[in-house]
């Protein structure tokens, strides 16, 4: 009995005993166990010509990764994009709804949408639901009044900032921004910083994962860089491939894309009664 | 570890220190700049002094969402009122509108406010509207979580008929004392001075504030590189 008590660490602090054991097991051929991740990292920053938005691409259902490559940067207007963290259904629904409202507003006014319009529509919707619509957003865009970047919280409060992060990985990403951000970044420096911040969230947060999406918005132009970085490639692919059981009767081993079978008519006649 | 993530979903609140003082000829409003979500500082440079009209400003504390929406509504009502009246709105009307919204929705709102401004009928006036929707016209008032540390200070230091310079210095000193003691207040000190000549906004970064008991000089801080005229890019 006394032997067991002696082996327990009497002092506080981290005990590295198990690390040594893990190293020994890896050398003997044991594969280290994988980590489960949940959550999001979304960021935005203002650079000299406009705004840059970034996001990771993992969507989770509790402990399961539901989508390894989802799109978290949502279209609001040709000059405005919005990253969404929180409940995926809520972010999709609220950004789609406001995007439609903005389009109708553009028809009504005949002008390019402004970022503050999107901001007010989003914040009033979220406030009226008192935080039950769980959508935390980073809204960015360039309009006639210049580049704008805002964060919107589920309860409906907003902040206007030169750089912003949201989601469970926001602390990791904010650490990168706070140490490396400065005013008047060039496009390449900005994209690099955004990618670095998202990677920091992907690797350091029990939060995010998979790939990095980036969106650069400048006056009159936007570049949606889907999967700008893929830092988590699939490392093991089985050589055997996939095969059917012996009882299966194989009829055809050729794959025909359906598009070739469909005739697309350009500028056809309108439907008539 | 989990408690940190739970807190990130907490409602965005402004711990805050807000102050409004009258002086001979106008008012000075002051506030810190920290907005916190649980234990995380969501915005370290927020602007808690919001404009309602050309001559009336409001300091917001408590729930960020509630205070932002309330000031948006009151700005809208005041704009309508100004058009209908044909003259700039008085500070008393602005304060009463804020009180009406705050009192009638007392069950749903959680926000303490200070309305301050200058008009030609009454001069500089400060109105405090705490939780619940009371309206109190006072020569000076303090609010927010950091105000607890300032009651004794103001009792001793306050005097009627200060000059603009004295009033501004008093406000900056008070906010910086509260920042030193209140965890939910921090960042920079913002002041807005309103008098018959108009409105002037001032900004005091954290490193220009005096050091209080047991506070140490900043050493090797990131701000050293930023004070240069053209900042050099950080090299990793």
TrEMBL record, chain A:
Gene designation per UniProt: PBB1
Entry-linked PROSITE patterns: PROTEASOME_BETA_1, PROTEASOME_BETA_2
Family (UniProt): Belongs to the peptidase T1B family.
Reported function: Component of the proteasome, a multicatalytic proteinase complex which is characterized by its ability to cleave peptides with Arg, Phe, Tyr, Leu, and Glu adjacent to the leaving group at neutral or slightly basic pH. The proteasome has an ATP-dependent proteolytic activity.
Reaction(s) catalysed (UniProt annotation): Cleavage of peptide bonds with very broad specificity
Keyword Cytoplasm: yes
Name used for this protein in its record: Proteasome subunit beta
Active site: 40
Record InterPro entries: Ntn_hydrolases_N (IPR029055), Pept_T1A_subB (IPR000243), Proteasome_bsu_CS (IPR016050), Proteasome_sua/b (IPR001353), Proteasome_suB-type (IPR023333)
Localization, UniProt: Cytoplasm; Nucleus
One Pfam family linked to the record: Proteasome
Any GO molecular function: threonine-type endopeptidase activity
PANTHER family for the chain: METALLOPROTEASE TLDD, PROTEASOME SUBUNIT BETA TYPE-7
Natural source organism: Salvia divinorum (Maria pastora)
GO CC, alphabetical: cytoplasm; nucleus; proteasome complex
Automatic annotation (TrEMBL), chain B:
Catalytic activity: Cleavage of peptide bonds with very broad specificity
Keywords linked to the UniProt accession: Cytoplasm, Hydrolase, Nucleus, Protease, Proteasome, Threonine protease, Zymogen
Cellular component aspect of the GO annotation: cytoplasm; nucleus; proteasome core complex, beta-subunit complex
InterPro entries cross-referenced by the UniProt entry: Ntn_hydrolases_N, Pept_T1A_subB, Proteasome_bsu_CS, Proteasome_sua/b, Proteasome_suB-type
Compartment annotation: Cytoplasm; Nucleus
Catalytic site positions: 16 (nucleophile)
The keyword Disulfide bond belongs to this UniProt entry's keyword annotation: no
Domain of life: Eukaryota
GO biological process: proteolysis
GO terms for MF: threonine-type endopeptidase activity
Sequence similarity: Belongs to the peptidase T1B family.
Annotated function: The proteasome is a multicatalytic proteinase complex which is characterized by its ability to cleave peptides with Arg, Phe, Tyr, Leu, and Glu adjacent to the leaving group at neutral or slightly basic pH. The proteasome has an ATP-dependent proteolytic activity.
Quaternary organization: Component of the proteasome complex.
Protein name: Proteasome subunit beta
Organism placement in taxonomy: Eukaryota, Viridiplantae, Streptophyta, Embryophyta, Tracheophyta
